[in-house]
Every structure is written in C-alpha cells, then in structure tokens.
Amino acid sequence: DWQAGEQLANKSDPWVEGVKLVLKQFAGILKNHGIEEIKTVGEMFNPELHEAVGEEEVEG
Length: 60
Fold this sequence. Notes:
This is Nucleotide exchange factor GrpE. GO terms for molecular function: adenyl-nucleotide exchange factor activity; protein homodimerization activity; protein-folding chaperone binding. InterPro entries: GrpE, GrpE_head. Keywords: Chaperone. The protein has about 60 residues and is mainly alpha-helical. Helices cover about 30% and strands about 0% of the residues.
C-alpha cells in the first residue's frame, strides 16, 4: 500500500525523507510507462476495472 507511510509523513527523519523520495521517483517512473493508480474509493464496483477479492453478505 503506497499510503502506508503517510503516518510518517510529518517526521523529519533523514531515513523517512529518503524513503519518501524513492517512492516519489518510483511513482514517476511507473507513470512514465503509463502505469497509474486506479482510484476506486467511494466508487461503485465495476467488474471491467476492479477485481473482487472477497464477498460480504448483508441483509436486505
């Protein structure tokens, strides 16, 4: 998860800053190759874009 490190975002530790820089560069490389994150939070499930990894039963 790319956002897992957001908890560390406000720390000024040189190691954390280095990791954030590497992630930013890696995301740029992926984008240059046409690979981008698919925004799905809050959207309806679309089987053409999304892959179900689980199922949850609800009443109603």
